[in-house]
Every structure is written in C-alpha cells, then in structure tokens.
Write a structure and sequence with these properties.
This protein is of the alpha+beta class. It has one domain. It contains one helix and six strands; from the N terminus they run ββββββα. The strands form two sheets. Strands 1-2-3-4 form a four-stranded antiparallel β-sheet, with helices on one face. The chain has a two-stranded antiparallel ribbon with strand order 5-6. A hairpin with a 5-residue loop joins β5 and β6. The termini are close together. The mean pLDDT is 85.
Length: 108
Amino acid sequence: MKHMTDNPEGVIARYLTVGGATVDLALKQVRHTFPDGISGTRGLTSATCTGCPASSEFPHWRTRTGTWTSSWDEDIPAEKAEVDARNWAQAHAEKCRAMPGPVSSEHL
C-alpha cells in the first residue's frame, strides 16, 4: 500500500493549492521536430493541476531565429526550465480553489 504523501511515479515536486488539490511537476521526454525537419526526443518539465484543467510545459530548449531567417534549437538547462515550472506551479497553487479530483486506484 502506498503512503498517501508519496508522490505519484514521475512527479518530482508537488504544490498544494488553496482548494486542496496539487500542482504536480514531472520530467518528460517528448518527440520534437527540429528546425531542419529532423525529429528527436527532448526533455521538458510539465506542471499539471490535479483539481482543474490548468497545465503548462517548460521545454529544455528554445527555437531561435537568426538574422537571415535560419532557425536552430538552443538547449536550456533543465534546471532553468524546472525553476520556471516551479514559479508557475507556485503562482497557480496560490489562487486555484479547485477541489482535488477522485483518487484513482493507482494512488492507493
């Protein structure tokens, strides 16, 4: 039996909302198409509220466009993306009044 305060698998941080739900942060790997058309897997930090539909993703890259309209991807340290995700999660948790949804059997 899982302890009630344990984070679900993959969740690296949780923020308690005003309404008692949580905003969960997780690291994910997603398919990304680079500006040159080649696809690859890149990381991102996601923030998802468990009480309402609010969520946001913070990629570990950004696409830059140069002077001559060429584009390329530039890596962003995962730590920077995580800080941005934590700031978003904290701001959302401070104002979200949604109640937690039903507990699924995987969290018991």
